[in-house]
Fold each of these.
Amino acid sequence: QQRDKLRQYQKRLSLGLERERALARQLLKDGKKEKAMLLLKKKRYQEQLLDKTENQISNLERMVQDIEFTQIEMKVIEGLKIGNECLNKMHQVMSIEEVERIIGETQDAVEYQRQIDELLAGSLTEEDEDAILEELNAITQEQLKLPEVPSEPLPERIPEASPVKNRPKPELVAAS
């Protein structure tokens, strides 16, 4: 608001300066040098006020920018505060001791499984492996049961099919 008021004040001063300059010219034409000189002094004073006003506006704008930046910083700090609170709550739920315990249990379980794998892999002898392969082949053979093949040799010629007696021929049936 102050910045806007200062801007309005600057406009009024600028308009007044132009009027006074024009009036000083007129006074010089009329031969009133003393009054023109006084008017130019007043104009000079107002120009200095205009410069001071410009500096004040500049200071106000810098202050407004500082305030806006500070507000942004406050929002960032508030966000960091909320983030820290969330992290603290999460840390309360999961403490370092709890994490170390879980990691230890996981490592123990992995080691236990490795020992089981070693026992299973190392305890089978060659005879056991052969027995396992035989059992696998037997199961495979059961699943692939094929029909039995006759053992006697096949005849060399296939006898022709004997015609059926007393059966009418198709063209005779259609003709009657």
Amino acid sequence: DAGQRQLGAQHCGSCGMLYSPGIPEDRLQHLRHHRRLREGLSYPGWKQERVVAEFWDGKIVLILPGDPNYARRKAQAVLAQVDSELGFPSSPRCPEPSHIYLFVCPGKGVLGCLAAQPIQQ
């Protein structure tokens, strides 16, 4: 290793990515991954938000189909991030009758997401 401290693969504690910090391409890919997670899961807060429940570590915000565009866009961005992380093909938009619940922690952004749809059968 010739005295190099950052040789070999390392596991990032905050995002979970396995990368090699000694390789510039890996380091750049890791920074892009971090930026994508930060931007997709950030939550600045809204003046007119529908808070369902509040806890000591965060709150649950409900987004309905009739909500303003900024709320629906945030729900779609979070769902796209979740689909990407789980390996599902991303859908172009969330289904109309779905209710999106976001668990939001101040300073950390969106920590959880639930998409609920009414079903007939």
